[in-house]
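Supplementary Text 2. Reproducibility record for the structural model of the 178-residue chain.

All settings were left at their defaults, and a single model was retained for analysis rather than an ensemble. We include the record here because the model underlies the residue-level annotations in Supplementary Table 4.
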Amino acid sequence: MAMTQQEIVELLRIAERRGIPVWIDGGWGVDALLGRQTRPHNDADLVIERRNAEAFVAEIIRCGYCEVVVDYTTPSHTVWQTEDDRIVDLHLIEFDEAGIAHYEGESYPPGGLDATGTIGGVSVRCVSAEAQLLFHQGYEHTRTDVHDVLLLCERFDLPVPEQYVAESRAASGECGSC
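Retained model, structure tokens:
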């Protein structure tokens, strides 16, 4: 089942009532930055501070989410799912004394959590386009990764990361060997 705009907004409202800042990442984060939904999303990638994890998890459990252990589960990355297959992909970050956010040994670039976008007409915090591009590298990407990366690069006039260049050429009709 795809996550709807209304479901994402409701999750954010639940967090807001508890005073928990949430940043939207992944596909919904891209669409929030673009200000429109560009494709269906099977999950919501949410970023919160580790110190808020217990309170946030308690709230989503009340909403019917249960933890699902997957091959990429770590202490900082968990997956929560409802019986009707709505999925929250939860990423826990920690800020250091300089205010830099860290996730699983990686640091967010300056301004990486300063972006805002819209989902369903609601203003939301989200991971910046530059940080999205950074975290979309270094692994075997999917069609949805290509879709998201190329939209971000086009909208924010950012260079296409090297591992996405061939797909960028194909999307624009350029010959890959020219």
